[in-house]
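User: I'm writing a tutorial on reading structure tokens. Could you give me a worked example: one chain, its sequence, then its tokens, then a sentence or two explaining what the tokens reveal?
Assistant: Sure. Here is the example chain.
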Amino acid sequence: MKRIGFIGLGTMGKPMAANLLKKGHSVTVYNRTAGKADELVALGAESARTPALAARGADVVFTMLSNDAALLEVFHGENGIMAGLAPGQTVIDCSTVSPATSRRLYEELAGHYVDFLDAPVTGSKPAAEAATLVFMVGGNEDVFGDLFSLFMELGSKALYMGPSGSGSYTKLAHNAMVGINALALMEGLALATKAGLNPERFLEIVKAGSAYSRQVELKGPKILERDFSNQFSLKLMLKDLLLASDLTSQFQLPAPMLHGAATVFQMGLAKGYGEDDLSAVVHCYEEWIGRAIEKFTVSSSSPEPIPSGRDRRRAQRVHLDIQLLLSVYQWEQEGAFTGQNIEGTLRDLSENGLQIASKFPLAQDMFVVIHFPKEADLPPITGRIIRVETHPNEFRYGCLLSGLSPYVRVKLEQYIQSKI
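And here are its predicted structure tokens:
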């Protein structure tokens, strides 16, 4: 059995340290928040007051920290790991950090005759608890071979990827795919939900088809059950995507899907979901489609009858009386237009458009620019007239809205809601 120092007892580190204790190793733990060590102490671990004390006398020191800055602080800060190391020890860093940081620590520790492996993991909290993590390892191959059995006490697979930094490169490429796959799942669910489909049945189709992925298995049920408890946090997913984006810049590699995924996760962070599971970014999609992505509340064996088109339109309409100004443009010749402004009233709102009343006659398929009252703080919105109804003293026009950004759609819905 080995003497092990374990530094960083967060979502992943704590269950990993617990599994080492269960395997019979002598484990000394350190965490900046000391209370996180209490459960491990109850299992037989010793608690160290500093990283240096956790590292002192250990055969192997594990680190599992949230980012580059935290890792470097643990090594170089006051009473850091460097103050407790001695020749012949090995440090295994399981954090997801930049390859440059991994190589820097490898070179620094080599100067003290200490081996360093960058060995990030995949599998998130359930795999850490079940000791089924997958390790991707960079550094000296002989050192990896000597410690292979230790890796297999914590995981189901450990692969040597190459020299120092290779484990970190592997993890960032892997997590770029994780983030993209997670958003692919959410976009598919959003599309299906907006179309009125049962999202549980949609997931069954996905699991049986070519769109299946590990993210479907792990995050699909969490989304439908509204369980955003943290397995791998949104803020850490974003951190990994930004690190991967930095690599694509260094390599001059276009990566449109990676950059797009990072942007969506940044939105999720800005909305306050950083500490939740990465699946919480689905809230962004729910805002855009105007409804929650969740299990159907009606019995799947007794679905509600589908109403006729006319009944559905009537059921979904909300009656309003909001004064508008409409800009009407007409084609003249060779690209020239003439236009005029007319008064109108917003009468009804449906899911895909508006019904506007005006005394001014317009024709089907004409385009109008709709100007809302100043209080709405909305930009001009373009609509195409798809239906014309003649009523006493006025015409009513069904307008299909076009080119609305998600942000403007949300603002429009909020304004309309304030008038109901």
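What the tokens reveal: Residues 299-304, 306-316 have pLDDT under 50 and may be disordered. The longest helix spans residues 166-194.
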